[in-house]
Specification:
Elements: H1 5-9, H2 17-31, H3 41-56, H4 58-67, H5 69-76
């Protein structure tokens, strides 16, 4: 089972903007393709970016919460990283 956007960022569903940014900063330094040689680093980074962008946008976050992770990703995310 793939992690939710909240799980990718290591925050709970009630996280505020500051917590989301903190979770992003904590993870980006480890998975950024410039510092991570893992073959999956680029996909991990794209997942992190998508999660952050979605949860920081009030309208998109509400849509994500309403639809649930699987449905939102299937219908709203055009990022091949989520399909792998």
């Amino acid at each position: 089972m793939e992690p939710t956007f909240y799980g990718v960022l290591g925050v709970g569903p009630d996280a505020d903007e500051e917590e989301i940014e903190c979770g992003y900063r904590e993870r980006v330094t480890d998975i950024h393709p410039d510092v991570n040689d893992d073959a999956d680093a680029d996909a991990q980074f794209k997942r992190l970016q998508t999660a952050r962008e979605t949860l920081l946008d009030d309208d998109e976050r509400a849509r994500y919460d309403r639809l649930g992770h699987a449905s939102y990703v299937r219908h709203h995310v055009s990022c091949s990283a989520w399909e792998s």
